[in-house]
Write a structure and sequence with these properties.
The structure holds four protein chains of four kinds. By secondary structure, chain A is of the alpha+beta class. In chain A, 44% of the residues lie in helices and 17% in strands. In chain A, the strands form five sheets. Chain A has a four-stranded mixed beta sheet with strand order 8-7-6-11. A three-stranded antiparallel beta sheet of chain A has the order 1-2-3. In chain A, helix 6 crosses helix 8. Chain D is globular, with a radius of gyration of 20 Å. The chains are: A alpha+beta, B alpha+beta, C alpha+beta, D alpha/beta.
Chain lengths: 441, 660, 158, 287
């Protein structure tokens, strides 16, 4: 078939491959199975090679685990470190200094800003404006791309300061940090963050005005919810259909399963339903906890309701969260007092440890069993993308019929755009398998 | 003026105030990250009161003493060289616009500092490093400015750590010269001695009373007790000579098994001064800058030279270089030991290697003295070459007048300049040639002309590729002329033998031209030229013209050739190993790859040429060109400054020796 | 040419200069002078090497045949030095081709006669073999140095 | 060994004629994406870099694709599956210069820890249906399969070194990527040695510099993510460290992100292998 043919014009059974998804983190592709113009199945194939992290952390100390799990993902290493460190501290009963908690939240804000700015400006925005990449987009809209890069840079500066480097930071330790930070050091972030906040607000306006395909999904949303904060380091697991669960109890409601047709582990509800995590879920389920500046920005867009149902609007949710993370980071800097000790003292020992935090892409869950020597005996690491995978596939199956009448190239683009709107981080998806494609028909 | 004053303990801040009033920022000991470090102090409260440090090989631990003394910790991790010879300084900024280039020095005006708490050993170290960095009229302007801007408040030791051995190195514990003020800390205050003109107004402004005799006595007794505690752990007498003859000791290999070659010892050493220069630029190479940072002879890259070669590939070689430099060849170079016995290299070695033990094993007092590898230097050290106008930051911009292709991969750049120092170059000297954004190679001068120089360059790396790619009108930045040239005067009245290998003919051409310019003053002139292939011969027309002269003998030989070549094939020594001339009347000038020069020197000696009359030019990684970066050390020599031209006799067995 | 003249010729060469008068005389009796025009092949690689030669004037290039290609000159023999030393080996097969690259005069010694003469005269043998050894040793050293390819352009650190 | 020549022919020096934009590709194998992300983290210069080089293949950032040829191909990730073995061979054939970026591509990365383990056991430990999982028994560095012209070390690579590499590439000079110990950078920064002053084990003396000595500066020991430096004397360091700790605890220090590099691997083996070689008995109830 030719690029100009439409999918619907093809006769008989058809497998459509979008090989090599671009502008996503990691390596994957999509396979649609279409029979007589009807989309029967959609699945994301992940050719990201398995790296067996749950096995690699066995025999390791909690601090070693914090270093190792960061390597699951170069985009959101802090999310992995935060989830693990909170899990261990909770499991071992370690009290942390409130100032340490504030620093961790600041660090996480840095990652949110970096990750969201990357996705909004470099990965997603080119779709809406018709460019193959932000680098080409910069020929026409250099100022916008530069603003986005500056925003990203600000996020990285936070992670660099607190973590030592932007990717795979080194300072997070069980009990706190490996070093302390003086007020003046932290205060150095104020100026770039103030500028970044301005850019973040402009970003909301920019993306709220984008021409977006109309598409409504009807699915379950899941996020953390905290009594007073926008969810990040902690909270209870809530859903759009009324779930309310302690974060440590993720496994009582969700499980990872191997699905017959996919050979991939996917997380689903115990009832088998897919669910969606991420900015749209957070905005929908915890939007009342947004920083006032972010809440105001969201209100100005008038898109809160649409964000809940239209995946293409996730870019707006991300932009609102950019405002939230930037504004909150500024608040944290203003209020910062150094902790008494960089890290609380603790003793290794046996425990069951579990925790969930909100990575930029959504809820991330870790569980560890520590043996008598305090070394990891078992681990379970559930990244956001493996939880979202089932929902993405369901949405793609629902969406695909709309593009069957378009030329293949156009249809492919539309579908890719939809996939990118979920910001799938395939590198993260430690459970994704190298799928052998079967011809159904 | 009394011999000493007394400053009550609680008035130390008044001294700080007086130093600040003198326009100085105060640097002194304070606690950071589990160690005493020297850092900028805002008040005396930041001093490490009541803290001391227990040191051992590979270990340093702070401990609370229970008393209120501020200076009871030995020496800090960081030495004062951090302030006189910072770990990183910007050197130059360059801009290249079409063919024009501009290179400017960006050395900063150093801050006026007061060093508070300088130990006797550290004072000695400052002096030693100053001699190294400011050796003679050239030297490092940044170091000189920083040293001149510092006022020194020394504190005599009232305790010693287990790693101290200043007593053996004659550098302490008593402070006897070099400080502006000297404090001796007693329980209730400080005995203050004024030891320089600069110290006078500082103390005068404090209105101190004279120290009581018992206070002075207690201070004296205290430091005398320290001397007793330390004892004399290193047999320093004759150590330099013993080490010099222990170059083949098996212990070098043994210590290399333990040594991590991590360079910590050199970086904490208060006298080590070696540096490297890095280049940075924008993506277009138009705006470039250089900066200088601490480097170390323990790193492999430090001994790297052209041709994928390295003079100190093994850790054994590097450890030997360091230890023999500190305790032996430093004497040759600067007339003193390079060690002051501060013990930092012992405490901060991650695997606890103790120089005192290594010295005792490698150069024991009972060691039989073997043959001396190189001739002894005068007690005050080697006199540096006069390099009055050459500093690491002074550049001369020269313009390429024309480019003469020589071989497939080499050209001669004919440069024009009116800089008198450059035009005053002598045969055998070299220049550092810089293009912004590129590393700076040393290039020997292949012709000295009125109004300019010729440089013959082979493209063998990015920098030389860029240079050989220049066209007429382009500019380059030069530093030089550097080094000691060929001693042509030594050949007057004698036969002259010139042996060149490959591109090695380039630095010999000025000699040939100088000698032919005064032809009657010399005896027979014989040129022996080697090349890789017939196509790689240099200056072919000129050499052919010389061959046509009756008063010059020219012979050439190539390593390999096709049947079309009817000339000689073989190695260059075959041109004269069967010749009939008498070497005892000859002075030889040799340049080529080191291996070729070794073979040549042997053959020349067989032909009767005296080793004092065989001159060759060595290749090392000359970087600063004036002996302050340390890269090109060879035994007691800085090749850039003491050479690159040496006689075989001067080099002794250092010539061709592996790992030096 | 008369033997006495050949003695004078040999005396002027490096190869024979240090021999005793008697030894030179005996050697001279075994040799004869030969003139080679430019381009003359005096000994051929792989063939029987009949004569040991001492170059008196001119130049002989020793060449090896590259597989499938051109000849490569690996050494030239200068006045005073020898070529064709394979002639005194038990299996006198030439290891390279010798070509006179300019008009060349050499003293030639028949290999078989020379071997017999040396076998019969220990003093002469010691002198001649010693000289040959020096020459061959020099060539070995030279070949090794050539193998090092000292003048090749190496990577520079800058 | 000397660093390989990384200068592109015909690209030497500012006077070598009209500059041609080198065709650059960035691909990945088993890895976290962090090293290629480092290019996007050069925010201040990213657009200038994109002007000076032609990024023809960089799936994470652009939908333009290219199968080659490449003037320089940056390769992230270790080779972990049979398909990857074939793909790296194909890429090598279309790449003038192939440069590995990061610990995974250069030394196998953290996933190479499983190289010590039984592959079937590893699969079964993570996947309920292990037979569906296809991966080689070992995760190995790219250089085990194809010739590599250069490498940028680190987990992740240093933005500064990546910038240096790209500037050197465009301007035609040799990148300055020192192979010396982390200690030099640490001491230049004036950081107090955590090993000597606090007894914290630190791999700085045997690890290649380039990170900026972040870990010691942040109060912890270097964990070797840039891999072994030249003349890495791991034997001596391990012997010294073993005075105060068990063999297992010495081994675990080296069993990090460059564990499969030759000197580290040898030391890990000498001290009984990496942690976690024996999987504890798994409870039957899962969830």
């Amino acid at each position: 078939m030719h690029d100009t043919d439409t999918l619907a014009e093809s006769s008989g059974d058809l497998s459509v491959d979008i090989a090599g998804l671009t502008r996503v983190e990691g390596e994957g592709s999509l396979r649609l199975q279409v029979r007589n113009g009807v989309v029967e199945q959609a699945h994301l194939e992940i050719f990201e090679a398995p790296r067996y992290f749950e096995r690699l952390v066995v025999g390791r100390t909690p601090d070693e685990v914090i270093d190792i799990v960061a390597r699951i993902c170069g985009i959101c290493p802090v999310a992995y470190q935060m989830t693990a460190v909170h899990a261990f501290e909770h499991g071992l009963g370690i009290e942390i200094d409130p100032a340490v908690r504030a620093l961790r939240r600041l660090l996480y804000c840095g990652e949110w800003i970096e990750s969201h700015a990357l996705h909004v400006y470099l990965l997603h925005l080119p779709d809406f404006l018709g460019y193959p990449s932000a680098l080409e987009m910069a020929h026409d809209r250099r100022a916008a791309v530069e603003a986005g890069l500056a925003l990203k840079r600000t996020g990285n500066r936070i992670v660099e300061l607190i973590g030592g480097r932007a990717i795979h930071p080194v300072s997070v330790r069980v009990g706190g940090f490996s070093r302390s930070f003086r007020r003046t050091e932290i205060a150095a972030l104020r100026q770039p963050l103030t500028a970044a906040l301005e850019v973040a607000l402009q970003t909301v306006d920019l993306v709220a005005g984008l021409d977006t395909p109309q598409f409504e999904r009807d699915g379950r949303l899941v996020a953390l919810r905290h009594p007073s904060e926008y969810p990040m380091n902690e909270g209870r697991i809530v859903s759009s259909d009324g779930l309310d669960l302690a974060a440590t109890d993720w496994r009582s409601e969700f499980s990872e399963q191997q699905v017959a047709w996919s050979n991939a582990l996917q997380a689903r509800g115990r009832d088998g339903r897919p669910y969606l995590l991420g900015p749209a879920a957070r905005i929908t389920l915890a939007g009342d906890r947004l920083h006032p500046m972010a809440a105001a920005a969201l209100a100005r867009t008038g898109l809160a309701a649409e964000i809940a149902v239209n995946p293409y609007r996730s870019i707006v949710a991300r932009a609102v969260e950019l405002v939230d993370a930037t504004a909150e980071a500024l608040d944290l800097i203003e209020a910062y007092e150094p902790p008494h000790e960089p890290a609380a003292r603790w003793r290794p020992g046996p425990c069951s440890a579990a925790w969930a935090t909100e990575a930029p892409r959504g809820l991330i869950f870790h569980a560890y069993e520590l043996d008598d020597q305090g070394l990891v005996a078992r681990a379970q690491i559930v990244p956001p993308t493996s939880q979202n995978q089932a929902a993405i596939e369901a949405d793609l199956a629902a969406f695909a019929p709309r593009v069957l009448d378009l030329p293949q190239r156009e249809a492919t683009l539309r579908i890719e755009q939809l996939i990118r709107s979920y910001d799938p981080c395939i590198s993260c998806a430690t459970h994704f398998l190298d799928l052998t494609v079967e011809n159904v028909g | 003026m009394p011999a000493a004053y007394f400053l009550p303990r609680n008035e130390l801040d008044r001294l700080f105030g007086a130093l600040v009033a003198d326009g100085r920022r105060i640097v002194g000991p304070t606690i950071a990250d589990g160690a005493v470090v020297y850092d900028e102090l805002n008040s005396s409260a930041e001093l490490p009161y009541g803290r001391t440090a227990d040191t051992a090989p590979g270990s340093y631990r702070l401990r609370t003493t229970g008393d209120r003394r501020a200076f009871d910790y030995g020496v800090a991790l960081t030495s004062w060289k951090r302030f006189t010879h910072p770990s990183l300084i910007p050197l130059t900024r360059a801009h290249r616009d079409a063919d024009r280039i501009v290179v400017e020095s960006v050395l900063e005006e150093p801050p006026k500092l007061a060093f508070v708490g300088v130990r006797a050993c550290e004072l000695a170290a400052l002096g030693i490093q100053e001699r190294a960095m400011r050796a003679g009229p050239a030297g490092d302007p940044d170091h000189a400015a920083r040293r001149d801007a510092a006022l020194i408040v020394a504190v005599e030791c009232a305790m010693a750590t287990s790693t101290c051995f200043c007593t053996s190195m004659a550098s302490g514990p008593e402070v006897d010269h070099g400080a502006d003020l000297v404090l001796s800390e007693l329980d209730d205050g400080f005995v203050v001695r004024v030891e320089s003109d600069a110290g006078v107004p500082v103390v005068a402004s404090l209105g101190l009373r004279a120290a009581a005799p018992d206070e002075v006595e207690r201070a004296t007794a205290q430091v005398a007790a320290v001397r007793e505690v330390i004892g004399d752990p290193v047999a320093a007498n004759g150590l330099a000579a013993r080490l010099r003859t222990a170059l083949d000791h098996p212990r070098w290999s043994e210590v290399a098994e333990r040594c991590l070659a991590c360079a910590n010892c050199t970086l904490v050493c208060p006298t080590c001064f070696c540096t490297s220069v890095g280049v940075a630029s924008d993506l277009d190479g138009a705006d470039a800058s250089t900066e200088r940072s601490w480097d170390s002879c323990f790193s492999l890259g430090f001994g790297r030279v052209a041709g994928d070669a390295n003079f100190r590939p093994k850790v054994r070689d590097r450890y030997r270089q360091w230890l023999t430099h500190k305790f032996s060849t430093w004497w040759d170079q600067f007339g003193s030991s390079g060690c002051v016995g501060c013990g930092r290299c012992i405490a901060w070695c991650p695997v606890g290697i103790d120089v005192r033990e290594e010295l005792a094993a490698i150069a024991p007092v009972s060691a039989p003295t073997g043959p001396i590898p190189w001739p002894p230097s005068p007690p005050e050290g080697r006199a540096p070459a006069a390099l009055a106008t050459i500093t690491p930051a002074r550049h001369v911009i020269a313009t390429v007048r024309s480019v003469v292709p020589e071989t497939a991969d080499s050209v001669t750049l004919r440069l024009a300049t009116n800089d008198e120092a450059v035009l005053d170059a002598r045969p055998g000297q070299f220049v550092m040639v810089e293009l912004p954004a590129f590393a700076t190679p040393p290039i020997s001068i292949s012709r000295i002309r009125p109004g300019g120089l010729d440089l013959t360059i082979r493209s063998a790396g990015p920098a030389t590729a860029a240079l050989t790619g220049l066209v007429a009108g382009a500019q380059v930045a030069l530093r030089g002329p550097l080094g000691r040239g060929w001693p042509i005067d030594a050949a007057i009245g004698r036969d002259v033998v010139i042996v060149a290998g490959g591109i090695g003919l380039a630095p010999l051409r000025p000699v040939i031209e100088a000698i032919l310019g005064e032809r009657p003053r010399f005896g027979a002139i014989r040129l022996y030229l080697g090349a890789r292939t017939p196509r790689d011969r240099l200056f072919v027309a000129e050499m052919n013209a010389l061959a046509g002269r009756a008063d010059v003998e020219v012979a050439e030989i190539v390593d390999r050739a096709g049947p079309e070549w009817l000339g000689q094939v073989g190695i260059v020594t075959q041109l004269f190993d069967q010749a009939g001339w008498d070497g005892s009347r000859a002075t030889a000038f040799v340049c080529g790859p080191e291996r070729m020069m070794q073979a040549t020197a042997v053959t020349l000696a067989e032909r009767g040429v005296n080793p004092t009359a065989i001159w060759l030019t060595l290749e090392r990684n000359m970087a600063c060109g004036v002996g302050t970066c340390g890269h090109c050390q060879l035994g007691p020599f800085f090749v850039c400054r003491d050479g690159p031209v040496f006689s075989v006799a001067e080099l002794g067995t250092a010539f061709g020796r592996e790992g030096l | 040419m008369a033997t006495r003249d050949l003695t004078t010729v040999l005396d002027a060469t490096w190869f024979a200069a240090d021999l005793t008068t008697e030894a030179t005389g005996r050697l001279a009796a075994l040799g004869s002078l030969a003139d080679f025009a430019e381009g003359t092949i005096v000994v051929r690689e792989g063939e029987v090497c009949e004569s040991l030669g001492v170059v008196v004037s001119g130049r002989i290039a020793l060449r090896l045949r590259l597989p499938g290609g051109q000849d490569r000159t690996i050494l030239t023999v200068h006045p005073g030095d020898v070529f064709g030393w394979s002639a005194v080996l038990p299996q006198p097969i030439a290891t390279s081709t010798g070509v006179a690259v300019m008009p060349t005069t050499a003293v030639l010694f028949d290999g078989n006669r020379l071997k017999l003469a040396l076998a019969a005269d220990c003093d002469l043998a010691a002198a001649i073999y010693g000289r040959l050894l020096v020459s061959v040793a020099r060539r070995l050293t030279a070949t090794r140095v050539q193998l090092l390819d000292l003048y090749r352009p190496g990577n520079e650190p800058w | 060994m000397e660093p390989p020549e990384l200068i592109l022919p015909g690209r030497r020096g500012p006077r070598s004629g009209t500059p041609q934009r080198p065709r650059i590709g960035i691909v990945k194998f088993a890895s976290c994406d962090g090293c290629q992300l480092t290019l996007l983290d050069l925010e201040d210069e990213l657009l200038t870099i994109a002007d000076r080089v032609d990024l023809v293949e960089f799936a994470e950032a652009t939908s333009r694709r290219s199968a080659g040829p490449f003037d320089v191909l940056f390769v992230e990730g270790s080779i972990s599956t049979a398909e990857q073995v074939q793909e790296i061979a194909r890429l090598r054939a279309v790449s003038h210069r192939l440069v590995t970026i990061g610990a995974c591509a250069t030394a196998g990365g953290i996933q190479a820890i499983r190289n010590w383990f039984d592959p079937d056991e590893v699969r079964a430990a993570v996947y309920p249906e292990p037979t569906y999982v296809e991966s080689l028994a070992q995760a190995r560095p790219v250089a085990d399969f194809v010739a590599v012209d250069g490498e940028l070390r680190g987990c992740p690579i240093s933005p500064g070194q990546l910038r240096e590499f790209l500037v050197a590439l465009v301007t035609g000079r040799r990148p300055q990527l020192p192979d010396e110990a982390v200690c030099l950078e640490c001491k230049r920064r004036g950081v107090v040695c955590v090993a000597v002053a606090q007894g914290i084990p630190c791999l700085g003396p045997v690890t290649r510099t380039g990170c900026g000595a972040i870990c010691p500066a942040y109060g912890r020991g270097c964990y070797g993510c840039f891999g072994p430096r030249e003349s890495a004397n791991t034997t001596s360091l391990a012997r010294w460290l073993s005075d105060d700790r068990s063999a297992a605890d010495v081994g675990r220090l080296f069993a990090g992100f460059t564990a499969w590099s030759v000197p580290f691997r040898a030391t890990i083996d000498a001290y009984g292998g990496p942690p976690g070689q024996v999987l504890p008995a798994r409870e039957t109830d899962d969830a």
